[in-house]
Amino acid sequence: MNRLCDSMEPRVMDDDMLKLAVGEQGPQEEAGQLAKQEGILFKDVLSLQLDFRNLSFNNIETIEGLDTLVNLEDLSLFNNRISKIDSLDALVKLQVLSLGNNQIDNMMNIVYLRRFKCLRTLSLSGNPISEAEDYKMFICAYLPDLVYLDFRRIDDHTKELAEAKHQYSIDELKHQENLMQVRLQDERARQEELEKHKVCFCLQTAFVEHLNGSFLFDSMYAEDSEGNKLSYLPGVSELLEAYKDKFVIICVNIFEYGLKQQEKRKVELDTFSECVHEAIQENQEQGKRKIAQFEEKHLSSLSAIREESELPNIEKMILECSADVSELFNELMMLEMQLVEQLEETINMFERNIVDMVGLFIENVQSLMAQCRDLENHHHEKLLEISISTLEKIVKGDLDEDLPDDLRALFVDKDTIVNAVGASHDIHLLKIDNREDELVTRINSWCTRLVDKIHKDEIMRNRKRVKEINQYIDHMQSELDNLEYSDILD
Questions:
Q1: What does the alpha-carbon distance between residue 97 and residue 288 come to, in Å, rounded to a whole number?
Q2: Whether residue 49 has pLDDT greater than 80
Q3: Based on the number of CB atoms within 10 Å of its own CB, is 361 exposed (0-12), middle (13-18) or buried (19 or more)?
Q4: What domains can you pick out in the chain, each with its CATH number?
Q5: Which own/partner pairs from 402-406 qualify as long-range (CB within 8 Å, at least 24 positions apart)?
Q6: pTM score above 0.70
Q7: Cβ 83 vs Cβ 108: under 8 Å
Q8: CA dist 19 to 34, 196, 345, 389, Å?
Q9: Do 78 and 98 meet the contact criterion of CB atoms below 8 Å apart?
Q10: DSSP output for 239-298
Q11: How confident is residue 66, by pLDDT bands cut at 50, 70 and 90?
């Protein structure tokens, strides 16, 4: 770990320190040079260490200046002079927090950490509070979702004891937190309600919004000045009414079909999500059992080592413990590889199913849209017949009806009237084509984003799990590596 300060003077974090730390811990060589040229975005930083190197400490006293690291998952401030945990509010994705060997002496700092819902690993060893009699129980009670404390897994029995011991205080704290949450919810209630309706509407319409009525048909005439003029021709009003009725029926069919297909896609997604959740949960339970078995044996082995007086026996026992650690690592990684293969098969099957469902949906919608175009073509032919017939009557002087002036202006010759009818037809077809293209583009984009996100989420899950396994195993192995014979023999 690169040091950030050679001086023993107390320091606070600033932008220069963060930039230096991120730069040193970020990509190196060609990738590093490119990052320096383009600039490193703090929001892309997932892990950051602000601790020490070769016994040179940063001497940070105050946590601040981390607001831009909004995606940070792993933060180490090991070996500093920090006495208060605060100013981390922006780090909503924080999973691992190392604050060992600092000067934190007030247990109420733990209450602040309750807001970090993703926090699973916390290290506070070497702080004054770690010497308190109720240290572990207090933290387990106030941070019930914590998995590792000082790199040791918290077992369920300890959590139950801690919850029972601090139940009254926790209940009161939850009450205060609930009151605060209600106030916060009230402040943003209106905006959330608007967003909720917007999301619900998008889900319900299922890419077929505004097709449950005459919206598309009306939009075809909204900018069609020629078509509006021609609607005043004798016989066109009845033709237009019949055309609209049939057109709207097809649109409603598309809308209702879209809702049914959206529900089918939702069922498919829910089933997939449930399968993934069950697979992960079952795998995690297997991992917990293996860790519990290991820890039971490991603690017994450590006790035996401390009781042993013969150095050769001690060395042999330590080697056996190290072999157990390696075996646990292999077992946990094997479990993870099995889960990766299982989820990969599940994801690929879901991808095939959802792509097929979207493809069938698009195919059927395009077929229905083709019926709209057929209606438009038929209407165009009939309108052109009426227009040509009207022109012939005007030329012969046989037209009995009075036409509006702007409509009569179109009947100067055949080319003019044919062009007017054709222009109206082109506008209508363009509106139909655009609505179809919009629907196809949006659902294809949705499908692509969904599948990409599922693959990305699985990659991130795997990386986090492997990282968690390595951290735990590294700590176990480090504990053995640092075991000093003199301490044992004393």
A1: 22
A2: no
A3: buried
A4: 11-187 (3.80.10.10), 207-489 (no CATH)
A5: 403/232, 403/233, 404/229, 404/232, 406/229
A6: no
A7: no
A8: 15, 39, 42, 79
A9: yes
A10: HHHHHHHHHHHHHHHHHHHHHHHHHHHHHHHHHHHHHHHHHHHHHHHHHHHHHHHHHHHH
A11: confident
Tokens of 328: 């646990």
Q: Locate tokens 């979702």: which residue?
A: 145
Mean pLDDT, the chain, whole residue set: 85
3-state helix, strand, coil in the chain (%, to 5): 70, 5, 25
Ordered strands of the 148-149 beta sheet: 47-49, 74-76, 96-98, 121-123, 148-149, 152-153
Closest to 153 (Cα-Cα) out of 277, 7, 332, 30:
332
Tokens 């297997």 sit at which residue? 286
DSSP class per residue in 439-461: HHHHHHHHHHHHHHHHHHHHHHH
Burial of 480 (0-12, 13-18, 19+ CB in 10 A): middle
For residue 186, pLDDT beyond 50: yes
Q: Are strands 148-149 and 121-123 parallel, antiparallel or unpaired?
A: parallel
Looking at residue 149, its amino acid is: L
- Greatest distance between any 2 Cα atoms in the chain: 127
Please report, rounded to a whole number, the percentage of residues in the chain having pLDDT higher than 70. Answer: 84
Q: Rounded to 5 degrees, what angle do the CA atoms 59, 60, 61 make?
A: 110
Strand partners, 152: 149
Distance CA 247, CA 376 (A): 9
DSSP 8-state secondary structure symbol assigned to residue 43: G
Least confident interval from 34-48, 382-396, 417-431: 34-48
How many angstroms separate the CA atoms of 253 and 481, rounded?
A: 71
152-153 vs 148-149, strand pairing mode: antiparallel
Give pLDDT, residue 60.
80
Extended beta strands in 141-224, E state? 148-149, 152-153
The residues, any chain, with a CB within 8 Å of residue 82's CB and separated by 6 or more, are: 60, 61, 62, 63, 99, 102, 103, 104
